[in-house]
Design brief:
This protein is of the alpha/beta class. The chain folds into two domains: 165 residues, Alpha/Beta hydrolase fold, catalytic domain (Rossmann fold, 3-Layer(aba) Sandwich); 87 residues, PLAT/LH2 domain (Lipoxygenase-1, Sandwich). Helix content is 15%, strand content 30%. The chain has four helices and twelve strands. The strands form three sheets. A five-stranded mixed beta sheet has the order 1-2-3-5-4. The longest helix has 25 residues. It is globular and about 70 Å long.
Length: 257
Amino acid sequence: VSGLDPAQPYFQGTPIEVRLDKSDAEFVDVIHTDSAPTIPNLGFGMRPAIGHLDFYPNGGEEMPGCDKNPISQIVDLDGIWEGTRDFIACNHLRSYKYYSDSIIYPDGFLGYPCPSYNLFKDGTCFPCPEDGCPTMGHYADRFKDKVKTEFTKLYLNTREAKDFPLWRYKVSVTLSGKSKVKGYVNVALYGTDGNTKQHQITEGTLKPDNTYTAYIDAEVNVGEVTKVKFLWNNNWINPTLPKLGAATITVEVGQNR
């Protein structure tokens, strides 16, 4: 059984006979997309973990792309009917949109086991454990024989609109140069299956020999990394023409570590 943001009002906190529960099937996976409290936040979805695998994309409360203004949301690419539904219950309805996208992307929507969304965001739960990460949606049941704990909470990020999946990488850049400068560092990844856009690794004071690390959610699965593009910019004209390079760039893939 796949629960697509199971209802919170009248169901949260009720006995297991009344609501969806892991005892309802051999394998129960759940996508939580609107789990903020009903009062005062009007969350339609259930917050507690209730299945064998519980996925909380973007933290499970506010979905990217759901904060558009009402006019642009209602006159949506998907038409006025879909746009109106999204305006009323955008977070809630993201669950089935992620699910339908997951059918097309069997390697997308990797869920990282983690105690909280904040820890996931700062990289504490990266990379995947030894036995890998399950994928949210249609292919979650490929993981059913690996479920060990009582409840498994899984976190991931998605894009604002179709196509929704993102692929997470850890990128570390060690700088080379003669003097520290202010500015930012961007990196793009190139691989056998595609290239990413530029992602910012750090901003502020850039010191040679220092290593800067960021977790980037890329819009493509690049496959095997073949090259990286390094770009830095000091934001304003500096008469001393400082030079800065990358001594090393390390890329770690979430799934295969």
